TrEMBL record:
This is Dynein heavy chain region D6 P-loop domain-containing protein. One of its GO terms (cellular component) is dynein complex. Coiled coil: none annotated. It comes from Phaeocystis antarctica. It comes from the Eukaryota. InterPro entries: DHC, Dynein_heavy_D6_P-loop, P-loop_NTPase. One of its GO terms (molecular function) is minus-end-directed microtubule motor activity. Residues 134-252 form the Dynein heavy chain region D6 P-loop domain. GO terms for biological process: microtubule-based movement.
Amino acid sequence: QAPADQVTYLIMGTAVPNPPPMTAKVQEYLTVQQWSSACAVKDIDLFKALPEDLELNVDGWREWIEWPNPEMQDLPGEWIKKVSEFSKLLLIRALRPDRATAALERFIRTTLGDRFMTQEPFSLEVTFPNSTYQTPLFFVLFPGVDPGEEIEALGVKLGFTETKGNFVSISMGQGQEKNGENVLDRFTIEGGWAFLQNVHLMQAWLPILERKLEIATEQGHVDFRCFVTAEPPGLPDQMLIPEGIMQSAIKVACEPPTDVKSLLRGAWSLFSQAT
């Protein structure tokens, strides 16, 4: 199990705003940002000697840092013996941040296996049977991805449409509070799908949404479903969505595929086997 301080640094990364002056030797191969990051990571016991060693073992560190793929290379000096593969990620994060993603992918592949690096195309039709009137479906939005069409298409297939009056989609924003509350109240009693988009824009209203969903959990119609979308918070320590909603919901991260294979698999998944 990785130490908590190392996990925190890997996720957030830090740099010392006013690091000690760089010596002439260090200036030959490190940028100010790299030096600042090295001075920050030394707060972790394992790396407390890193800034000093960057000055003493210039040739070894320069060679490692200048490799096109340093994550594949042995660390210089004694570091190879005392730094685990996970801890090595922190050095990549500090000294070669451009290789952090590649290094993390390599670590996951070698530690957990290739299956953890394969992004299965998301299918709402597969996920939906796991939902009930007590479990909203919460979609975390990223640029270029919108689950709206898939939600509406599944609704048509299962008999929930705007034409029938049992599907309502609302783009949440100023002035939409009452509309959101009304549709939740009605569908909680009668059954229907409420699709509330961009609820991150409605911070003051979210406690009301949380309470409405609690009521649905206690006495909702079996055909009630609530689909919610929101963008992720801007900072790691921010919490935009009430904890009660996050705990009860099925959470889906709508991230676009990052490789050609996943893009093709996602495209093929839109076609039925009979096509």
